[in-house]
């Protein structure tokens, strides 16, 4: 340990760990790292003066946790179970591989119907504009600011459709009048659904349902954010991510179950 009581060069300070993680996880903070430590997901050594000393293995463990949250929306409970299994295994790498990239959405494949034959060789259906459904939902880019003309160009919609999307609350500009990447993805999805005769006015139910879900989750998460301790933001972010993952999973299951019933399954 140095004269100032700081970690030795063979251990990384929390600031150094933050510097290694930031290029891949721009939103990570020291508070987030401390929160993950408090949850038992990483256990750095401590100097006699109480300074954290992170090893290279600790950094990789944090990288796994952050990737599992960001790319796979895994709850901390599941991540902790995987880490615990790896800790007790002879070969941790076999139990705890690096998270795989998120699979792209499945593309719609044409099927035979009363209106006509299926596309040859299982060709893909592009209902509205020729874009494959997997291309309709790009990963949102943080910090994107689009003017209305830019949004129209990126989403491939006309001003009339944008006006309808705004009228029914599906797309909302920010306080400065600009749109973000989520607005582009929503507009592209609405354009694709319009190819099946589903107009923006029909999508009000989706907006209302999403607002109700957000309102429910807000009741749980907001009190956590309002705590005054330094870890409150990290705890709130983690709780919001977990609840969002559970909400999305439940919504997907309910829709799938309803479609099976509609098909007589």
Structure in words:
The chain has 265 residues and is mostly helical. The chain has ten helices and two strands; from the N terminus they run ααββαααααααα. Strands 1-2 form a two-stranded antiparallel sheet. α2 crosses α10 (232-262). The longest helix has 31 residues, at 232-262. The chain is elongated. Mean pLDDT is 77; it is low at 1-8 and 99-140.
List the helices and strands and how they pair.
Elements: H1 14-21, H2 30-38, E1 45-46, E2 52-53, H3 56-72, H4 76-87, H5 92-95, H6 148-155, H7 159-167, H8 181-194, H9 204-226, H10 232-262
Antiparallel strand pairs: 1-2
Indicate the multimeric state.
Answer: single chain
Segments where pLDDT lies below 50 for 5+ residues? 1-8, 99-140
- The N- and C-terminal alpha carbons lie at a distance of 67 Å
> What Rg, in angstroms, do the CA atoms define?
23 Å
> For the residues shown, what is the average pLDDT?
77
**Largest sheet, spatial ordering of strands:** 1-2
Outline:
The protein is 51% helix and 2% strand.
Give the tags.
265 residues; 2 strands; mainly alpha; two-stranded antiparallel sheet; disordered N terminus; 51% helix
């Amino acid at each position: 340990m140095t004269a100032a009581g700081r970690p030795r060069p063979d251990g990384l300070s929390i600031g150094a760990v933050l510097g290694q993680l930031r290029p891949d996880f721009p939103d990570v903070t020291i508070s987030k790292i401390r929160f993950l430590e408090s949850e038992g997901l990483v256990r750095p050594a401590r100097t006699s003066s109480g300074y954290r000393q992170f090893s290279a293995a600790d950094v990789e463990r944090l990288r796994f946790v952050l990737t599992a949250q960001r790319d796979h929306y895994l709850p901390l409970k599941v991540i902790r179970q995987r880490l615990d299994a790896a800790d007790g295994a002879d070969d941790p790498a076999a139990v705890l591989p690096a998270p795989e990239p998120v699979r792209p959405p499945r593309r719609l494949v044409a099927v035979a119907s009363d209106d006509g034959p299926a596309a040859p060789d299982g060709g893909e259906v592009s209902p509205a504009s020729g874009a494959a459904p997997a291309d309709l939902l790009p990963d949102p880019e943080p910090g994107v600011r689009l003017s209305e003309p830019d949004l129209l160009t990126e989403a491939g919609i006309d001003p009339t459709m944008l006006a309808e999307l705004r009228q029914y609350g599906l797309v909302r500009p920010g306080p400065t009048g600009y749109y973000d990447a989520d607005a582009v993805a929503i507009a592209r999805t609405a354009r694709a659904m319009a190819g099946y005769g589903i107009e923006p006015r029909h999508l009000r139910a989706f907006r209302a349902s999403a607002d109700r879900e957000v309102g429910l989750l807000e009741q749980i998460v907001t009190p956590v954010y309002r705590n005054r301790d330094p870890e409150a933001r990290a705890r709130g972010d983690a709780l919001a991510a977990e609840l969002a993952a559970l909400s999305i999973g439940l919504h997907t299951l309910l829709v799938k179950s309803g479609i099976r019933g509609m098909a007589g399954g």
